[in-house]
């Protein structure tokens, strides 16, 4: 439970120590912070905002990839130590702080903050897992993300954060669930922020990003898991919509500008980028079970139903409706068997023979 407005704010000392210039002071503050959070039963909104302000600058001051990795891991894992009654507010104030401070981050520090976002999302999913994928908890988490970094209309949310979350959403979810247990995860509910984005955004690039990196990617993964003889194989190359000519021209101009900037910055960023990539690879090593299928079992039927609701929903932006309908049709094609079985069962219940059996009788 978060209490708004408290006369005494016990997080102030942490804020100053977490942002200290001296590394030893910051390290001691982070270590003490974990114990303090575990023993707290109630947080004020002001406490959490000051806490994340201090933690933001704690990350800002950190140098060397290994130190940054350890710090991001430690800070993100605090999600699992916060009391259940305050964990959603803890997550919400993190994203509020990141969105508020993002435009002030220079390009040399961006990689370590992108890494922090990745680890924080991962531990958010771990929190849902520890709560046994309780639907009420998932709904609360989805609301935090929809009201915060994955809001479709909030112009204060930096595109860098929004696009990064779309890119890593499936990846981080798959990492924390064993493939054998993935069928028990209510993925259609976990993807609620993505349904919101795709339905309500007026930004064609955001829609395309969600469609391709989330919903089309699920179909591709399913197709690959089915193997070469799968009926899904031909669908693996599907795309929801083609680029408009204006969009292609805009992207070409942006690509040219980016290439010019990258040529200037490439030498300076190369070493840092390699280090961050190695950090991520170290974390990923050994997380996939050996000798088992690596195909995550997404709830295709549930996703299909949600897409069907989205294409007809009143709040769906009109320009997105047709594209969602195309995506919905792709999911219908991916899971036709269950619908066909239901129709056969209904016919049998009405005393009618399935069509195949009638044809055999006529012969």
TrEMBL record:
Cellular component per GO, a single term: nucleus
A Pfam match: Nop52
Region described as Disordered: 222-297, 335-363
InterPro entries reported in the protein's UniProt record: RRP1
GO biological process entries: rRNA processing
Keyword rRNA processing listed: yes
Keyword Transmembrane helix carried by entry: no
Compositionally biased residues, Acidic residues: 225-272, 279-291, 336-363
Keywords of the record: Nucleus, rRNA processing
Localization terms from the record: Nucleus
Similarity comment: Belongs to the RRP1 family.
Protein name: Uncharacterized protein
Originating organism: Podila minutissima
């Amino acid at each position: 439970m978060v209490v708004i407005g408290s006369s005494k704010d016990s997080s102030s000392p942490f804020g100053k120590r977490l942002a200290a210039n001296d590394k030893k002071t910051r390290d001691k503050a982070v270590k003490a912070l974990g114990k303090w959070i575990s023993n707290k039963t109630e947080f004020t909104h002001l406490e959490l905002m000051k806490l994340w302000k201090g933690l933001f600058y704690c990350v800002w001051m950190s140098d060397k990839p290994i130190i940054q990795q350890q710090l991001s891991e430690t800070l993100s894992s605090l999600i699992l130590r916060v009391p259940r009654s305050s964990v959603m507010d803890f997550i919400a104030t993190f994203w509020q702080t990141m969105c508020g401070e993002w435009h002030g981050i220079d390009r040399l520090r961006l990689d370590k903050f992108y890494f922090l976002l990745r680890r924080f999302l991962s531990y958010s999913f771990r929190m849902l897992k520890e709560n046994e994928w309780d639907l009420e908890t998932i709904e609360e988490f989805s609301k935090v993300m929809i009201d915060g970094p994955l809001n479709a209309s909030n112009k204060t949310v930096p595109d860098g954060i929004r696009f990064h979350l779309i890119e890593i959403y499936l990846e981080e979810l798959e990492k924390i669930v064993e493939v054998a247990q993935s069928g028990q995860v209510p993925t259609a509910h976990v993807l609620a922020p993505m349904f919101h984005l795709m339905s309500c955004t007026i930004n064609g690039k955001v829609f395309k990003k969600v469609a391709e990196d989330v919903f089309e990617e699920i179909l591709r993964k399913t197709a690959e898991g089915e193997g070469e003889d799968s009926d899904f194989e031909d669908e693996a190359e599907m795309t929801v919509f083609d680029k408009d000519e204006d969009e292609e021209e805009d992207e070409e101009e942006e690509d040219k500008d980016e290439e010019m900037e990258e040529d200037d910055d490439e030498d300076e960023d190369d070493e840092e980028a390699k280090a961050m990539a190695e950090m991520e690879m170290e974390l990923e090593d050994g997380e996939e079970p050996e000798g088992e299928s690596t195909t995550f079992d997404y709830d295709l039927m549930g996703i299909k139903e949600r897409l069907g609701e989205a294409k007809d929903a009143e709040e769906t932006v009109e320009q997105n409706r047709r594209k969602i309908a195309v995506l919905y049709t792709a999911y219908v094609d991916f899971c036709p068997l269950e619908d066909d079985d239901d129709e056969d069962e209904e016919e049998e219940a009405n005393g009618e023979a399935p069509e195949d059996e009638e044809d055999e009788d006529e012969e």
